[in-house]
Amino acid sequence: MGARMSWGHAAAGLAVAGGVMGFMGSSKSAKSARAVAEYNAQIAERNARVMDQAAEQKVFMGDMMNVRAVQEYNRFLDSAETAYNNSGVIATTGTPALVALESARAADQDLATTDYNTKVAALQLREQGTGLRMQANLTRMEGAARAQAYKMQGYQSLLGGATSAAGAMALA
Question: What is the tens place of the pLDDT at every residue in 60-76?
Fold first, then answer.
């Protein structure tokens, strides 16, 4: 009978040890799941900041394009006026004035189009950044859920070990 009791105690001890080992492994897995999720979320947030910077760069470049377009239009207007004056035509009346007004209207339309396209492109980049921030939050939530699942596995392992130990002790 003594040998039977020692085997029962040994089985109970192994069951408890197995439960504790399972719990420890699950706890480490939970920490790893959180760490991986946080790392991935930080990458998504970094990419979101890159999108924000790209949007600002897009706005800056659009503004620069408009400044250059105004400078080119002014050069065109100056050279047209000079050409009219050199040919003896008064540049501020009649057809030359109509040409200047039409050129100004076309230049304004080009500036407005560039401004609109720049704002749309910047908005798209900002939206991508927002999507990446949302992805970062979702990644963190998924990591927390995975970590919680691993913790539950750990508790199940402890309970399983205790149950097995109790069963082994009952047979002892």
Answer: 999 999 999 999 999 99
